[in-house]
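On clarity, I found the account of how folds are encoded harder to follow than it need be. Since the whole study asks how a given chain folds, the encoding of that fold should be made plain. The format is easy to grasp once an entry is in front of the reader. For illustration, here is how one protein appears when written out as sequence plus structure tokens.
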Amino acid sequence: QRKWRPGRLVFLASRVRSSGVAYAAHPHVIVSSGPRKLGGTQAVTGLQLRPLPESADLPLAWYAVTDVVGLTVDFEHIWRKIVTPGSGSLLEEAMWEAIEKRRLSRKPPVSVEA
């Protein structure tokens, strides 16, 4: 499904973020998706996510699609409530990287002239 394509930026759902998962407040990029057994016997559609910033080389993890939301759903809330602008924190760096990746993904393709 297009919604869960690799490269898409997402956040973990608020209930997952509140569970204390490492890097839970960071924006994540989808690396891959597919059926997975995530803590149960039934296979669910899973997403392999990499927390931003990519330069930090943070560990990949699998989550159910029900555990993630689109980037725009919680971006403003996380920025206002959790990020301290100018702090140089890993979370602040991750948020700026997400902004840049989103901006680049929205640019129209460069036309090639013959």
About this structure: The beta strands are 9-12, 28-37, 43-51, 61-64, 68-70. The chain has three helices and five strands. The mean pLDDT is 87. Helices lie at 14-17, 71-81, 90-106.
